[in-house]
Amino acid sequence: MQTKYIGMIFGKKRNISGQYLKFFFRWPLALVLLFSSMVLHAQDSLFKVIPEPVYAKSTGQEMDIHPESIIIYPESLSANASLLNEAIRSYTGYLLPLMMEGDHALSVKSGRKEAFNKQKLVLTMDSIKVKEKSGYQLLIQKDQISIIGHDPSGVFYGIQSLIQLLHRSSKNILSVPQGEIRDYPRFNYRGMHLDVGRHFYSVDFLKKFIDLLALYKFNIFHWHLTEDQGWRIEIKKYPRLQSVAAWRSGTIIGHKKETPHTFDGKKYGGYYTQEQIKEIVAYAGSKYVNVLPEIEMPGHALAALAAYPELGCTGGPYQTARFWGVFDDVFCAGNEEVYKFMEDVLDEVISLFPYAYVHIGGDECPKLKWKNCPKCQQRIKTEGLKDEHELQGYFMNRIERYLASKNKKAIGWDEVLEGGISKNTTIMNWRGEQSGIAAAKAGYEVIMTPENLLYLDYYQSLNKNEPVAAGNYTPLSKVYAYEPVPDALSKDEASYIKGIQAGVWTEYMSDEKHLEYMVFPRALAVSEIGWSEKGKKDYTWFLKKLRHQEALLKKKEVNYYPYFDEITADFRNGNAISISLKSTLPNAVIRYTIDGTKPSPASKLYEGPISLDHTLELNAQLFIGNHAIGRIFNQYFQHHLGLYKEITLKNTATGKYNFPANLLLNGLVGHHRFNDSQWLGFSGKDLDAVIDLGKLTEVSAIGINLLNYHWQRMWAPKQLRFMVSIDGKDFKEVYTQENFDINGINKVRARFPKEEIRYVRVIGENIGTIPKGGYGEGEKAWLMADEIIIN
Ligand code: ACM
Ligand code: ZN
User: Fold this and answer.
1) How far does Cα 52 stand from its chain's mean position?
2) Coil/strand/helix, residue 63
3) Cis-peptide, bond into residue 74, ω within 30° of zero
4) 459: Cβ–Cβ under 8 A, 6 or more apart, which residues?
5) What is the DSSP string of 675-735?
6) Nearest C-alpha to atom 2 of ligand 1 is from which residue?
7) Which of 220, 234, 240, 610 has the most C-beta neighbours closer than 10 Å?
8) Residue 775 phi/psi, 5° resolution?
9) Ligand 1 atom closest to Cα of 361?
10) What's the rounded Cα separation, in Å, for the pair 4 and 791?
11) 225-246 burial, b if ≥16 CB within 10 A, otherwise e?
12) CA-to-CA distance for 726 and 655, rounded, in angstroms?
């Protein structure tokens, strides 16, 4: 840490010179260092607390907590005192004596008068001393720990920081570092979402989940209670929600992109009774976590429609969904009964959840059925609406007004902006930062929830052995790097950003262990983004703290993802491609092989970028001494004549697959998860590439990989053509193909009589629009291509 401060000061000295130089030379180095560590940085090597506190300074001494220490607290903090005591018991096996402030009688009765002279753990509240809401001061001295909260939640957060510091000393005594922490949150809303529709989790597990959220100072549990695949909240007025909508007849096996879809045939489901919901809400409340219920509408409604088919446009019959996606059957927006149903449901929801907000969904609602529904069309007419988007606006606004009449505020996913929604609605911008910016600029309160950065169902590693996940790639470092207040917002506009929230969509998290694996430790990164000031961010320090927190996660039996220090790679294109490997694990080395064998302690030591100059399979492994750490990093490299040659694309790649054209000629073959930044995607457009080999070259084979995953809207081309040319003007066709049968990577490898040519042209004709009956029918198809292989 200290070297870092020196670096910072020298850095400034070099840039600012004059004033700083004088200051630097006038004061002894030690003083400057002291000053800098107090003011510039609050990081403290002994206070490994997540999220990073505003100010933390340890003394270097330890405090041993004695068995006869006494916890003193005012009556208003008795729950907090018990929580602290339970935490201590989890280490020591015994509880400390509790004493309510000023309760002399109690101390006499319990024969603990002598306790006044003993070590104390004192909980108090003082909103003058600690000005910030939910803030606290934690002071740890030899004979006293004191936690002063602005309010009870502040005291609670002080206790959480203390819990993170508890450890057994070398003498096997429960200890904490001495020093001081002063702390308060950056954002008021620090949320974690959980989808219990796709998979169902026990009440006990939810309590454990909430415990972990509270430990890392989250204050919102967004409970996503209804889905196409299951309705999970008991609504007494509608018993078929329990007997029908809570269940599905089976669940898809594997990823939905795999076809044909296969199912396990097992009845699956469950719901939370209102008693259980009250229990969860109260439990969360005791940990200063508000529970935000979500009732999805008008889309993601299949389970409810299966129970009450009259609420859909066609009247059904419907089935609770057995696989994942966006379904065309949604609540009918023209049917008055639907609004009655929603109001009844919300009445019961409101009676169960004291939080000021109710989430009403609003995302991913296809308009297909509304277009063909007489009731919906009639509603558009009578309400003078322009189209089906405005019909959704009508739906959402009507529900928002209903909630307002019950003193509740609405939250919706960002699609609700499309149909026009009241400014009283808070927006969750799941579709990306841009929609959050747009909402804040338009004057909506926003909770930043961009899926590409904060959805924890995405892969956290590119390792081939990762369990199936939703897709994409959001490693811990990417989550941690996220800054929720975009530069594009003025100070005024930025004040509309109320906080952040991570999303846990559970299509591919069928059990609790797997859920923990996906959520932790990325949740700890989210915690720090939501609580700590922007300037506090330091990934190296965060990882150090995380390695310290592992003991606590293990103690709490959390099945967290342990490979956050694994080897990652960067590729450099130039005249040749090179791969550099790195890991964040200190004191480890990387050893590797290039013949596909498993690295051993005797394998070659990685010392710098490896040049990829022939076909090879690289395996790399972290070692500390002879001890292999984590998993093997694997990368295949395909050598061919087209490598690093000039390539021109008629249409650039689009959207999230908009990568540079030269990735098509880098020897790295994209894998079937298509999240490895190797696939170029063309939405609704053709792939049309011309490659200049630089000189006349004998060529007899051309190949390409194309993805065919109709359940991802990815369609192989209508027609693929390979052409060759000597001059780049007259092209001769050497190969054409129209059928691509494989669901997945179609490896086209064409051979033809040897030709001396300089140019190669590859045309893949996009099918354009997804045909009727296809997933996402009527939308643009993706044409996905990687490595063009020339030999
Ligand atoms: C969402 O992820 N569909 C809100
Ligand atoms: Zn309808």
Assistant:
1) 19
2) strand
3) no
4) 466, 469, 470, 471, 472, 473, 474, 673, 675
5) -SS--EEEESS-EEEEEEEEEEEEEEEEEEEEEEBGGGTB---SEEEEEEESSSSS-EEEE
6) 430
7) 220
8) -65, 125
9) 4
10) 51
11) bbbbbbbbbbbeebeebbebbb
12) 34
CA distances from 360 to 110, 395, 397, 403, 425 (A): 53, 11, 10, 10, 10
User: Three-class SS of residue 89?
Assistant: helix
User: Is the peptide bond between 298 and the residue preceding it cis, with omega within 30 degrees of 0?
Assistant: yes
Tell me which residue has tokens 């700590």. 532
The β-bridge partners of 447 are: 428, 499
363 lines ligand 1 (CB under 6 A): yes
Q: 61-80 burial string, b = 16+ CB within 10 Å, else e?
A: ebbebeeebbbbbbeebeeb
C-alpha of 415 from chain center: 20
Look at residue 110 in the predicted model and tell me its pLDDT: 52
Divide the 791 residues of the chain into consecutive groups of 10 and give the mean pLDDT of each group.
Answer: 29 32 40 41 81 96 93 96 96 93 56 63 97 98 97 98 94 94 98 98 98 98 98 98 98 95 97 98 98 98 98 98 97 98 98 98 97 98 97 98 98 95 97 97 98 98 95 96 98 98 98 98 98 95 97 97 96 81 97 97 97 94 97 96 96 96 94 94 98 98 98 97 98 98 97 97 98 94 98 97
Contact 50, 164 (CB under 8 A): yes
Q: Please give the distance, rounded to the nearest whole angstrom, from the Cα atom of residue 689 to the centre of ligand 1.
A: 35
104: burial class by Cβ within 10 Å (0-12, 13-18, 19+)? exposed
To test ligand 1's pocket by mutation, which of 229, 413, 501 has the most ligand atoms within 8 angstroms of CB? 413
- Are residues 277 and 223 in contact, defined by beta-carbon separation less than 8 angstroms? no
* Ligand 1 atom nearest to CA at 503: 2
CA distance 131 to 157: 15
Which-ligand-closest: CA of 451? Answer: 1
Nearest ligand to the C-alpha atom of residue 372 = 2
Per the DSSP assignment, residues forming a β-bridge with 568 are: 582
Report whether residue 383 contacts ligand 1, using a CB cutoff of 6 Å. no
The string of DSSP letters for 319-378 reads: ---SS-S--S--B-SS-HHHHHHHHHHHHHHHHH--SSEEEEE--S---HHHHT-HHHHH
Residue 413 CB–ligand 1 contact under 6 Å = yes
How much distance in Å is there from the Cα of 388 to the middle of ligand 2?
A: 10
Cβ < 5 A residues, ion ligand 2: 313, 332, 334, 373, 375-376
Shortest-distance ligand to the CA of residue 380: 2
Cβ partners under 8 Å of residue 726, min gap 6: 696, 756, 757, 758, 759
Q: Do 593 and 599 meet the contact criterion of CB atoms below 8 Å apart? A: yes
Nearest CA to 299 among 196, 238, 388?
Answer: 388
Distance, in Å, from the CA atom of 205 to the CA atom of 214, rounded to the nearest integer, reads: 14
Pocket-testing residue among 297, 363, 427, 501, ligand 1, by greatest number of atoms within 8 A of Cβ: 363
- CA-CA distance, 420 to 383, in Å (whole number)? 14
SS3 string, 140-193, reads ECCCEEEEEECCHHHHHHHHHHHHHHCEECCCCCEEEEEEEEEECCCCCEEEEE
Ligand nearest to the CA of 296: 1
The token pair that represents 300 in the structure block: 């993601």
In angstroms, rounded to a whole number, what is the distance separating the alpha carbons of residues 503 and 218? 13
Contacts of 580 (CB under 8 A, 6+ apart): 569, 570, 572, 608, 609, 610
